[in-house]
Amino acid sequence: MRAFFISNRSTQVIVVSSNQDVSQRLKDFIYQYTKAINNGDLVEILKMYGDQVDYYKSGYVDKNFIATDKAAYYRRWPAVENQVSSPIQIQASQITDLYVVDYDVNYRVFNPERGKSIEGNASNKLFLQVAGNSIFIVKENQWVNSRIRQ
Questions:
Q1: What is the pLDDT of residues 58-88, one digit of tens each?
Q2: Using CA atoms, how far apart are residues 48 and 59, in angstroms rounded to an integer?
Q3: Which CATH number fits domain 2-149: 2.60.40.1180, 3.20.20.120, 3.10.450.50, 3.30.830.10?
Q4: How far apart are CA 59 and CA 57, in angstroms?
Q5: What pTM value is reported for the model?
């Protein structure tokens, strides 16, 4: 895995080996994204987003908005554990090189200062744009299926 700059943008992107089929590349991206989330690595997380993203209920936002939102999340929940818990479902959309990816995660978030945690299961839906050897999140949504507060 390495990053590079697109010549006419200042956006860093994740490069995935081009000799893999698209389905495997998208699955690998989901696991890399989950790892970045678990590590709380905002730099790596932001590399995975397009310049404009249809982000949850916020509509179209830029990376600055996403960075602010994710930073607030990690302040509230500094320890995050997500594990993909279902098969990763991939559907090609009607738009060339745009794929709809659905998968579930078992999650646990914990704040040691407050002594609080939440765990459960959530369904994720990402729209992923394949641009050459790069993949970007261009739409993201999540629905919580179960939640236990402790």
A1: 999 999 999 999 999 999 999 999 999 999 9
A2: 18
A3: 3.10.450.50
A4: 6
A5: 0.84
